[in-house]
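Supplementary Methods, section 5.1.

A reviewer requested that the exact input to the structure prediction be made available. We therefore reproduce it here, unchanged from the version used in the analyses.
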Amino acid sequence: MNVRTRITALVGTACFLASLSLATASAGTEPPPAVVLTEVARAQTPSAGAAGPGDTVWIAERAGTVRVLDGQGLGEPVLDITDETTTDGERGLLGIAFDPAFAHFYISFTDLEGTSTVDEFAVQDGAILPDTRRTVLTQTQPYSNHNGGDIKFGPDGYLYIAFGDGGSGGDPHGNGQNLDTLLGKLLRIDPGGAEPYAVPADNPFVDDPAARDEIWAYGLRNPWRFSFDAGTGDLLIGDVGQSDWEEIDWAAASGKGGENYGWSSMEGTHPFRGGTEPANHVPPVHEYDRTGLGCSVTGGFVYRGAAIAGLVGQYVFSDYCDGTIRTLRIEDGEVTAEGDLGVQGGEVISFVEGGDGELYVLAIGGTVSRIDPA
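The structure derived from this sequence is encoded cell-by-cell as follows.
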C-alpha cells in the first residue's frame, strides 16, 4: 500500500519504470527464470487476497467487497461491507484470510471511525454464512495512515495480525517500541480458543505485566504485507520505511517470537533521526534505499508452486512505486542472491498465494495477474 504521507491516495498515480537501488551488496545475482504476467481478471482497486476452498482465490477490493476467482474469472461479490468502511487515507478492506480448514473466513478493515477491525464468519460448503459474523479484535487508529491490516494463519494454526505504528510520520507517539500498545506490532492470537479470542500460552510477552499478551513481534512501522514460507514456515515481513530505507524482516519458523525490528529508533539498519539502536534489535534480512523510484515495499511470498521450477524457494516481492517484480534467495536468515524477474506489475499493492503455490500480483489500478512461465 502507498504509505507515504507525501502520497495521499492509492489511485490515479502514474506507473514508473525503474530499477531499485538494492542495498544488500554482499549478495550475488540470481539468474532469472523466464516468466510473464498473465492478466486473469480485473477488480475494483484490489487490496488483498487469499487461497480459498476448492482451488479458488478470493480477492478483496478496498472499498469493501470480496469476489472469488475461479476458472471462469472473477465472480460477483460474495461479501459487501462498503457501507461499513471508508477509503479515505489508507483505510478500507485491507486483509482477508481463511483458517486452515476453510471453516472460517476473516476480514481486516477500518470502520467508518477508522478503527481497525478483524471480523470472523463461519463458512459452509465454500460459502460465507453472514449471520455468523462476530468481531474478534479492534484497535483504535489515531491517524488515517499506517494501518497495516494484513492477516494470515501461521503454520501453527494461530491468526497473525499486522498493525502499523498508528500513522502520521516518524511515530509521534512512540508506538513502535511501546509494548503496552498493539500498534507497530505483529500479533498472534487464537480466535477459536475463547470469546472473542484466546492468547497462546507461549506468546513471548504473556508473563510481562508491562506488555500486551497478544504481541508476537514489535518495532514495526507499517508491516503492510507479511507471509509464511509454505515450505519452511519462516516468517517474512515487508515493512515500509519512513524516508530513506525499505526493509524486509525474516524470522525462522523455529523462533519463539519477541523480535524487535527497531522502529522508530531504527529505519532498516540505520538510526532514525538520531535514534540509538536497541540492544535487542533484529536487523532486516534485506533493505534498499529510495535513490531510485522505489518508495513503499510490497512484501510477497516464497514461491513454492510447480509451474516455474527456477523460481522455487525464492522470495518474490515488489514496490508500490517501482512495480518491478524482484526476488531474494534467503538461506539461514541471509540473502545469498538477488534477482529481477524482468516483468513490471504496475502499482503493486499485494501478492496472493494460491492453494497450488502459484503467485498472483494485484495492482491498485485493477489488474489481477498470475506469474506464469514464459
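Confidence is low (pLDDT under 50) at residues 1-25. These observations are discussed further in the main text.
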